[in-house]
Amino acid sequence: MKILYINPARLQSGMDAIITGAPLSLITIAGMVPEHDAKLFDFKVDKYREKKFRSELNRYDTVAITSMTPQIYSALDVAKMAKEQGCNTIIGGYHPTLVPEFVADHDYVDFTVRGEGEHTFKEIIDYLDGNKKQISLKEIDGISYKNKESKIIHTSERALEPNLDNFPMPRRDLLKGKLYTYLGTTTRQVETSRGCPHNCKFCCIIKMWRNSSGGSTYRTKSISRIMREVYDVDWKNDFIFFCEDNFTINVKRTHKILDTLIKSGVNSKMRFSCQSRVDTLYNNPELINKLHKANFRQVFLGIESVHQQSLDAMNKRNTTPAMVKTVVKSLRDKGISIFGGVIIGFPGETKRMVRQNIQTTIDLDLDCVQFTPITAFPGTPFYDEMKEKGMITASNYKFYDLFHPMMKTEELTSKDFLQLVAEAYAAFYLKGWLIRRAKEYLNPFGKFNWMLGSLGRLVKQGILGGLGMLYSQGITTKIISDELKNTVELMKDINPTIKISTTKKIEKPAKHDSLTPEIVEKIH
Ligand code: B12
Ligand code: SF4
Questions:
Q1: At a CB cut-off of 8 Å and minimum separation 6, what does 239 contact?
Q2: What percentage of the chain carries pLDDT values higher than 90?
Q3: What is residue 509's three-state secondary structure?
């Protein structure tokens, strides 16, 4: 059988406009059916021309599409096209897992896959490829489909594979020739664990990797399996990104992985990046030293908010803004660049509080920041709660892209969210950020000299991609409010232990433009 694996369209807004990541989901499920012909088409990096794409579809029996929530319409468009060309269509990933009815309701989607994909995908392909085991669709766990009477059938939940080492290696050959970049550097992903032992109410990870009673799970790969995957990556790339949400959940295990990377000498040939948590790094400062020794040079941190009330409500009680400041300094002192995630407008935050959050982030001088309007993904208890309170404002999933607002709060309207996110990006990126970064990265004797080789791409992506995206969304320094410009007044009631700069001169309040009506219209 010929299978075409498809990663649907990229988003043109927010950080996704400048960061591309390989679809590990697709190459992972492809590993389960190596006997079938396979090709990967990634809308993020491959050139798309509808006519050519349609004729390409003609050559395949089956298409396997992955989809996060904001990509779902593009995923459905692709499925429709594929069905018109006579292919079987399978869609899996986050959105199909969170809202299977929505996806399965489309006649051109043959199989909607919920949860862990490997075993389910193999069973579907075996079924389509002659069904030698003579099973009925109802016997394939983890799928939703329409029966002959057009009724949506959800089969039983798919049990999670207890040992992740049992899965075959991802089909990295399918990525050959594709360029994926992260802040100017080229990257490949390696997954070392699945799930998370915590249970934050707004998180959709739990629903993806839940156990049979619906609870959260955390499974890890063995060190030898992780090393096999590290050696399997194309080392022409600058970085290996350990892509799970929190690489450092289990500190002892993290030390073991780092020790192995150091002992094997891999760290002298390859750089690494991961996502971690402020509290873990604060409580385990030796981990920062070892990350540095193992050649980790990029870390993603959820900074979220400078307001303790928000951190507490987010279930980040163990993190304080003072810890954030310490950890950011420790990492940057070692030449480890930080990509921070900041949430705009967590329920309870007023406009002033959001602007204090933006100003604190600017003062932290992180390498890169994603400002995310608080987002409730369907299928999470947070979404249900916000829906019940009448806070969900956008039913169109394309706005669930962590850039546009999809909800309001008691304190902020959707329009406020738009304005605040735009202000955040303008104030962070358009007021000297590029020059500061260039100075740091261009210094051949500085701690960030490892960026020198990637500078061309960073500038191209930063200027053409990132700044171009901001300007195309109407984001210029003109939209920065007087309140955010007047930093001394803004920051006067912020805890002094976390305050970084209060000495900036007060800029004369200027008349500022607000967001263009076209942008506001785009949302609702
Ligand atoms: C690495 C990562 C990225 C990378 C790479 C993305 C990529 N192309 O894969 C980068 C940084 C680029 C990225 C970007 C974004 N991401 Co992201 N990302 C992740 C992360 C941390 C890991 C994903 C991963 O590779 N997992 C490993 C693979 C093996 O697992 P998997 O993808 O879940 O696939 C399994 C199943 O889902 C299923 N499956 C998946 N697809 C298919 C298809 C078929 C046919 C079948 C049968 C099965 C199947 O089978 C697979 C094997 O079991 C997840 C969080 C997480 N821990 O999962 C967030 C996550 C997926 N991202 C998320 C979001 C929101 C985004 C962005 C929209 C954010 C933004 N605006 O910048 C963008 C959108 C990117 C896009 N494609 O347009 C959300 C998705 C929420 C949702 N409801 O959709 C998550 C869950 C984070 C979170 N906590 O909210 N992301
Ligand atoms: S938000 Fe982070 S810590 Fe909380 S459950 Fe999700 S992955 Fe775990």
A1: 182, 185, 186, 187, 188, 270, 271, 272, 273, 297, 298
A2: 77
A3: coil
pLDDT digits (tens, 9 = 90+) for 279-312: 999 999 999 999 999 999 999 999 999 999 999 9
Ligand 1 pocket, residues with Cβ under 6 angstroms: 7, 10-11, 14-16, 19-21, 23-25, 28-29, 64-66, 68-71, 90-95, 98, 113, 116-118, 120-121, 189, 191, 203-205, 208, 243-245, 377, 401-403
Q: What is the bridge-based pairing of β-strands 143-146 and 271-276?
A: unpaired
Q: Which of 154-158, 259-263, 453-457 has the lowest mean pLDDT?
A: 453-457
Centre a 10 Å sphere on the Cβ of residue 58 and count the other Cβ atoms it contains: 10
Contact status, residue 144 vs residue 81, Cβ threshold 8 Å: no
- CA angle (269 as vertex; 266, 270 as ends), nearest 5: 80
Output the six-digit token pair for 371.
């400002």
Predicted confidence (pLDDT) at residue 158 exceeds the cutoff of 90: yes
The encoded tokens of residue 212 equal 């049979």
**CA 354 to chain CA centroid, nearest Å:** 22
Per the listing, tokens 């700044």 go with 467
Judge contact between 399 and 374, C-beta under 8 A: no
Q: Indicate whether residue 313 lines ligand 2 (CB < 6 A).
A: no
Q: Which residues on neighbouring strands pair with residue 339, listed in sequence order?
A: 300, 368
What are the E-state strand segments in 293-380? 296-304, 337-344, 368-373
* Angle in degrees, 0-180, between the axes of helices 285-293 and 251-264, rounded to the nearest 10: 20
Question: Would you say 393 and 408 are in contact if contact means Cβ atoms under 8 Å apart?
Answer: yes
User: Cα–Cα distance between 235 and 32 in angstroms, integer?
Assistant: 24
Are 393 and 414 in contact by the 8 Å Cβ rule? The answer is yes
